[in-house]
Write a structure and sequence with these properties.
This protein has one domain. It has helices at 3-41, 49-66, 74-91. The two termini are 25 Å apart. The radius of gyration is 20 Å and the shape is elongated. It is built from 3 helices and no strands. It is an all-alpha fold and 92 residues long. 82% of the residues lie in helices and 0% in strands. The longest helix is centred in the first third of the chain and has 39 residues, at 3-41.
């Protein structure tokens, strides 16, 4: 793997990390706003917990895919890329 490939992979990881932090920040700000609205409307129940939990699952999955160091880390990606390239060679 050349330096250019390493640079492009590192750049992609940084972009993914930045996207996750933006997602997390928006999640926090929006859910704080929903909490305040829930307090002000006196709905009688905590409805803001539903978007908090649902969206929270999405943030959790985004975080797991961003910070994956186990089975789905960069080594796994490389193996899969090589596997598909080999398969394409055989199909041609």
């Amino acid at each position: 793997m050349g330096n250019e490939d390493k640079y492009l992979r590192a750049k992609k990881r940084v972009e993914n990390l930045k996207a996750f932090y933006i997602h997390l920040t928006v999640y926090c700000l929006v859910n704080i706003m929903l909490f305040v609205i829930n307090l002000m409307t006196d709905a009688g129940y905590w409805w803001f917990l539903y978007p908090l939990g649902g969206w929270g699952i999405g943030v959790l999955v985004h975080g797991l895919t961003t910070f994956a160091h186990g089975n789905f880390g960069s080594e796994w990606e490389e193996r899969k890329i090589k596997e598909y390239m080999e398969k394409d060679k055989k199909d041609i």
